[in-house]
Amino acid sequence: MADERHEDHSLSSKEFKFVCEYVHTKTGILLNESKREMVYRRFSRIIRERKLNSFSDYCHLLQTKPDEEENYFINAITTNLTSFFREKHHFDYLQAHEIPKILSQQKKSREQKKSIRIWSSACSTGEEPYSIAVTLLESMEAQLQEWDVKILATDIDSNVLAKAAEGIYDQSRIDDLPKEIQQRYFIKGTGSNSKNIKVSKKLRDLITFKQLNLLHDWPMTGLFDVIFCRNVIIYFDKPTQQELFARYYEYIKPGGLLILGHSENLGAYQKYFSNGGRTIFRKPEVCDQVAAG
Ligand SMILES: C[S@@+](CC[C@H](N)C(=O)[O-])C[C@H]1O[C@@H](n2cnc3c(N)ncnc32)[C@H](O)[C@@H]1O
């Protein structure tokens, strides 16, 4: 009964405006009229889950109990669509060009510690970092012991991170992967889990999952060979995108890569990178100072 009552409620312009501003300030995600229906649906679910009577009650709760509600609200509002080997050409490029390049360059310099660092900076439910891990193992498993290989996987949404760290998915999520990849890296569930698969320990061991809002400070100290920033900046406004590109640039090793999603581009920051392929951008070996923002 209560649910039906909420469905009848309309989201007032004032409440919609409040939500848009709140989400933008907290996450960088830009919501506009075209997202009204989506906001309404997700907001309605929150109202039901929180057993409230109106959208304005929830706006009030967000303002009065921000510590309790912020994380919950952000988790509800993010869009987490992803898949294993999404935009496969990025992983093909890593395997064919980037990993061999890293392996050969570091071999030459004996003093340097042999390490590979990759950051999946909006990892959602984990399919992206696990695809990176498969690609690394397929490219260099025999040499793995000589290397310190680490993938950092971060997202603002604590629910998707928990799912990612668990590493359990519906079997259908990997149906399109080659059979040998399925067998090498995923364990089939049994009994009541027979429709599920679990990622193997050797993939899991390469990845550290952490909650990180890209708008906040980044606590990492080292630089990355490759940063994946795919299908996240599309949700941000231009100034936020440009600020982030300046920060990503600083976190990439000279000669390293920044990889964006299919409908994303660097805008004015294109001039600081060279083109490595479809939405693959290379920081020069000798780097310019980048003007922030
Ligand atoms: C559409 S998914 C992209 C997942 C993956 N990178 C891919 O391309 O398949 C976008 C992710 O960005 C995350 N996100 C949105 N705003 C963020 C922010 N300010 N900081 C970190 N992650 C954010 C969302 O939680 C969501 O999981």
From TrEMBL:
Biological processes annotated in GO: methylation
What protein is this chain from?
Chemotaxis protein methyltransferase
Q: Which UniProt keywords apply?
A: Methyltransferase, S-adenosyl-L-methionine, Transferase
Top EC class, one word = transferase
Membrane spanning stretches: none
Give the species: Glaciecola nitratireducens (strain JCM 12485 / KCTC 12276 / FR1064)
Which reaction is the catalytic activity of this chain?
L-glutamyl-[protein] + S-adenosyl-L-methionine = [protein]-L-glutamate 5-O-methyl ester + S-adenosyl-L-homocysteine
Function in brief: Methylation of the membrane-bound methyl-accepting chemotaxis proteins (MCP) to form gamma-glutamyl methyl ester residues in MCP.
Which E.C. number(s) belong to this protein? 2.1.1.80
According to the UniProt entry, its GO molecular function terms are: protein-glutamate O-methyltransferase activity
InterPro entries reported for this sequence: Bact_Chemotaxis_MeTrfase, Chemotaxis_MeTrfase_CheR, CheR_C, CheR_MeTrfase, CheR_N, CheR_N_sf, SAM-dependent_MTases_sf
The record's listing under PROSITE patterns reads: CHER
Show the taxonomic lineage.
Bacteria, Pseudomonadati, Pseudomonadota, Gammaproteobacteria, Alteromonadales
- CheR-type methyltransferase domain location is 4-286
Q: Which domain of life is it from?
A: Bacteria
